[in-house]
Write a structure and sequence with these properties.
By secondary structure, the chain is mainly alpha-helical. The protein is 59% helix and 2% strand. The chain is built from nine helices and two strands. A two-stranded antiparallel sheet has the order 1-2. Helix 1 crosses helix 5 (82-111). The chain is flat and about 65 Å long.
Amino acid sequence: MGIAAGCVKSERSQAFAAKAKWLAEGEKLLRSLTFTPDQAAKHGLSINRDGRRRSAFELLAYPEIELSRVAEIWPEIRTIDERIADQLSANARYAVYVKRQELDIASFRKDEGIAIPADFLFAALPGLSTELRQKLERHRPASLGQAARLDGMTPAALMLLLAHLKKGPAAKRA
């Protein structure tokens, strides 16, 4: 969009494209290098012995496993530029959280159409801040999706509301 709007010059665009390419290639390499927990143990790495193969990228998600240690096992990792390798290490550390958040988003999208009964008593819903209860009572959202768009609505508050809505008719009146 920045390129289309003329905000990003060609040089910067090319640098971004090159970095994205290096990151993709580096991640592909890290994901292609795998071994079993038994093989990991032979290299002195302690991971869950569940028999599942793990990639170098997955190993980097472990707090005690650094890129330099993984590069000792697979020397080809040393061909990755240091700045790209640092970014890949950070990406690997957060990948599990990103995946979990993506699952949460998909789950919410499935649930955002859940209707909130017109007679739902938000004021009696335990666990919500007084401010949120008042906003919900004032705006009377018709669905979970509408409630999510209220200013100050937190993920925790949405999950609490969702839990009460899924309990059944008796809970819908809080």
